[in-house]
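User: Can you help me understand a structure? I only have the sequence.
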Amino acid sequence: MSYFSPEAERVLVGYPRLVPADTTKCLTAAPGQTELPFADIPQDALPVLDQAQKRLDDVMKKVAADSGADFVDLYANTGSNTACDGADRGIGGLLENSKLAFGEENWIPWYAHPNEKGRDIQAERVAAKVEAVLNR
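Assistant: Let's start by predicting it. Here is the structure, written out as tokens:
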């Protein structure tokens, strides 16, 4: 990649945190929802999911550092906007309907992807990092 654009500044964006430190939050459906954020995934499995995500984030951070890229750490900055944070969630629940549909009735679930709030939180973090990189 640097062969084609040797002066390019590279930024690697991590993943937002899905599971909160307090997994009891995941035992309540978000406002206006009937399903739990992680559907039928048992509460005792959620820390395992969080650890897997944290390890992935750590690997990405190391790869960015080793290759001279900057890293946007969304995991560390989205702990209060997980799928289990009710009205403050930045991640839609596994079975929570998104704003996208096939036709008028076939809503596509979020499948633990960022909702509008999460998109905005992530965009602010990425924009701040890119601006910092370009202004150094």
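Now, to help you interpret it: Residues 65 and 120 are 26 Å apart (CA to CA). DSSP finds three helices and four strands in the chain. Let me know which part you'd like to focus on.
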